[in-house]
Specification:
single chain; 7 helices; 29% helix; binds D-4-phosphoerythronic acid; EC 5.3.1.6; Ribose5P_isomerase_type_A
Amino acid sequence: SKLEEAKRTAAYNAVDQNINFEEHRIIGIGSGSTVVYVAERLGQYLKDPARHEQVANFICIPTGFQSRMLIKENGLQLGSIEMFPDIDIAFDGADEVDENMQLIKGGGACLFQEKLVSTSSKKFIVVADYRKKSPKYLGTNWKQGVPIEVVPSAYVRVTKDLETKLHAKKVVVREGTPAKAGPVVTDNNNFIIDADFGEIHDPKLLHTQIKSLVGVVETGLFIDNAEIVYFGNDDGTVSVMN
Ligand code: DER
């Protein structure tokens, strides 16, 4: 489909134009459906005699269970962030990107490990399809609210604070599928709350306000973190933002 091709184009270009095979060794691998093609591209290089040696030495750092599987399925070496706290380059998707490259992430409920990896990396590259580029503010295209990871016992308190102190318009504890009744439980054994603030004119301030609430582990607002964004367009081209 055009959408999958756009994701693949963004991911392949991001890998080809940013991986320095001599310099990079510790590689952060994000979560979601676009970063799948980042792992796929690295897997192709692994099979390329000219690149096999270097890629076989890469240590890939995951951002959750899905990410761990991506690394394994593409024959790449898995490492832990405890062993490799300094990452050379990281790739991940995003739910929305504004004109200052501020991000909403967390659509896949992996935002905590994603932010731990992206902020531990010297270089953080975002790969996204054309639906993710906001015309201006965060909250324009992405209508599901800011994902917030919270300690389960605090979800009522955080919900109240988001409504009364930060005036969120709608606050929802993210539910799982009928295959598993109850709220989504993250890879870190926490809940996700999605809080709708409408258009976000100052994402840095909002992140700080949310982060200061008791019970909040991390927010899906990634501020001053992305270094380059690759957008796959619906005409097969790629746009680069930096
Ligand atoms: O949860 C996240 O932030 C993921 O990166 C995800 O939302 C990216 O979405 P994608 O499946 O469209 O790549």
